[in-house]
Design brief:
With about 325 residues, the chain is of the alpha/beta class. It contains 13 helices and 6 strands.
Length: about 325
């Protein structure tokens, strides 16, 4: 009787195991079918878009989102379609949603480049256009992006040729004194891991504090810089690239901007920084440090500040008569 019970127990376990295996295979099969169906729907939507059938394409991408609200390409294409239909309010809202999900969305950046050019905000327009070109995949350049650029060729050329002076930025910072006046911008995170995304901002804030403590610079308050970036619609573009940072610095009337990047390499954090002239874009000082883990970041950033301040006298002070205005 005991042997029979053991045999029965083994048989039951085998049956359960087999059922779980089949169930897992069925779930996997269903997921694969759903994924294939979504990819087919995306291809259909893109075909309709390229054929100029915007309403039909829009409906396809809306259906995709109803089934899976996290499908980024569907949101991107709805932003693109709204832009081509000249529904700029919807296009801007959708593009911003895309950038909240992925700051490297080339389609969203290109849509916003056009929208902010229409609004006369050249700082944001130029920054978004540069990021669109930077983040676009080869496939995107050959498909969706070329249709936007083709339809708006004149507009895109205007953005390329525009000057930062065309911006409506009306701030000037009080740069009186002998020390160079600088602004520290958020460092670019070159890592793909989402959990590392805020590292660049953390490091730039640490560096700003260290540079203030060095007593070799006047440093623009972070809250004031954030306010300016928000008013110029630059807060969602991610880390400001060097060219845009120089544009902002020039309009603010400061002497230089601090830009940089972070990356993980061989199990350590690499940090690079440059102090760039706000008048001519020339890099006066460049330095780099590394930290073996995040617990040692502060020490590494303080070392970075020491290296940058060692050559502070290379930065010309040329705007000591500027005054703050709003």
């Amino acid at each position: 009787m005991k042997r029979l019970n053991v045999t029965l127990t083994v048989f039951i376990l085998l049956v359960i195991g087999h059922s779980l295996l089949v169930s897992g295979q069925n779930v996997s099969t269903v997921s694969q079918i759903q994924s294939d169906q979504k990819q087919q729907a995306i291809k259909k939507g893109l075909r309709l878009f390229k054929a100029g059938e915007l309403d039909e394409s829009e409906e396809v991408f809306k259906k995709i989102l109803r089934r899976d609200k996290n499908t980024l390409i569907a949101k991107e294409m709805l932003a693109v379609i709204s832009y081509r239909k000249q529904d700029y309010v919807s296009a801007e809202k959708l593009a911003r949603i895309c950038l909240n999900q992925n700051r490297k969305s080339a389609k969203a950046h290109l849509v916003l480049a056009g929208i902010y050019r229409e609004k006369g905000n050249m700082l944001a327009s130029r920054d978004h256009l540069r990021k669109s070109k930077k983040y676009a995949t080869a496939r995107e350049k050959e498909t969706v992006l070329q249709y936007i650029q083709k339809d708006n060729k004149t507009l895109m050329e205007q953005i390329e040729k525009s000057s930062a002076k065309e911006s409506n930025l009306n701030y000037k910072v009080p740069t009186a004194g002998e020390l160079p006046y600088i602004a520290v911008f958020t460092f670019e995170d070159t890592n793909e891991e989402e959990d590392r995304e805020g590292l660049g901002k953390t490091i730039s804030e640490m560096l700003a504090t260290a540079l203030i403590q060095s007593n070799r610079f006047q440093v623009l308050e972070r809250s004031q810089l954030d306010k300016i970036l928000e008013e110029q619609a630059l807060e969602l573009t991610g880390a400001i690239d060097e060219e845009t940072a120089v544009d902002v610095g020039k309009l603010l009337g400061i002497d230089a901007v601090v830009v940089g990047s972070t990356r993980f390499l061989k199990n350590q954090i690499e940090i690079d920084a440059r102090i760039v002239d706000a008048e001519n874009g020339k890099a006066h000082v460049a330095a780099g440090v590394s930290a073996t883990d995040e617990s040692k970041l502060r020490k590494a950033v303080n070392e970075l500040a020491r290296k940058l301040t060692a050559d502070a006298d290379k930065i010309p002070v040329q705007r000591a008569d500027s005054t703050l205005s709003n």
